[in-house]
Design goal:
The protein is built from 11 helices and 8 strands.
Length: about 290
């Protein structure tokens, strides 16, 4: 095995914004790109970096407005984040890569697949973790229709959340929102650490991005994915597992792994049960 090598720095995208990135593991090893969810930082993947860096070239980065990246007053939409991902793949010349997206990270992957078809040759596999095909629930849908889409946010709820995040009690709103991503039994220190990572993003920018993210509908795009894919969900997540099943059913040959409540199966199962999560991902990555 080649010696482990780390690298860090910034890439600059077309509109001048700098994105912070880190790379770990042998440069000649297969590429694994970890893409965070809404308002989270690359540090949230530290349990995955520690596991995978021995046999993979692991790349993490912070979206604009997140973590250590620049925080401009513009560009907080999923399509712009997809263009940022394209810049990362191109400037670091990442090939035959597995893209692993958590939560909104899946939406970034879906937007990238839609907008940059010429870059699909760089993508070997996908891992899609607990993201709804569309978060916005149409009031006319039945409960069954909403569950298949994992649509959990009625229009009024979206507006209320955005106003709360942008208002004078935004930090409290973020704390309440973030609490729902974790199991009730999670270590309070872990919950606080993840919350502090989220609060590195200015809350008005977080609200703007959430508005765009919540209203997107990816159901026409998902069936057009044609690379090996692992879909991961959790019984303890706010998102119904029927939505993860629907995604897996749309992608030819996709595999599905649902974490039970008794195995750290929250929206952050990658944090609460890193051993089980990493094992499931590694089995998929090393399968033919």
């Amino acid at each position: 095995m080649a010696a482990t090598d780390t690298a860090s720095g910034f890439i600059q995208v077309a509109d001048g914004v700098r994105l912070a990135y880190n790379q770990y593991g042998p440069p000649s090893a297969p590429n694994l790109v970890l893409i965070t969810g809404w308002a989270q930082t690359a540090a949230a993947f530290r349990k995955q970096v520690a596991h995978f860096q021995s046999h993979f070239r692991v790349t993490t980065y912070d979206h604009r407005g997140h973590g250590e990246s620049d925080k401009p007053a513009f560009g907080y939409r999923v399509s712009r984040l997809a263009a940022d991902l394209e810049a990362l793949l191109s400037q670091l010349d990442l090939k035959d890569a597995t893209l692993l997206g958590h939560s909104m990270g899946c939406s970034v992957i879906w937007a990238h697949w839609d907008l940059f078809p010429s870059s699909r040759s760089r993508i070997a596999k996908l891992v899609l973790i607990d993201q709804a095909p569309t978060l916005l629930r149409n009031p006319a849908w039945s409960d069954e229709e909403a569950a298949r889409a994992a649509a959990v946010m009625p229009p009024q709820a979206v507006c209320e959340q955005l106003n709360a995040l942008s208002g004078p009690s935004g930090k409290d709103a973020m704390a309440t929102f973030a609490k729902g991503f974790l199991s009730p039994t999670v270590d309070p220190a872990d919950a606080e650490w993840l919350l502090q990572q989220s609060l590195k993003m200015p809350l008005p920018y977080a609200a703007t991005l959430l508005a765009d993210h919540a209203c997107a509908d990816w159901r026409d795009l998902i069936p057009r994915i044609n690379v090996p894919t692992l879909v991961i969900g959790a019984e303890g997540s706010l998102l119904p597992t029927q939505g993860m099943q629907w995604i897996a059913d749309q992608i030819p040959g996709a595999k599905l792994r649902i974490f039970g409540k008794d195995e750290g199966g929250s929206h952050f199962m990658l944090w609460e049960n890193p051993e089980g999560f990493n094992r499931a991902v590694e089995e998929f990555l090393t399968s033919s």
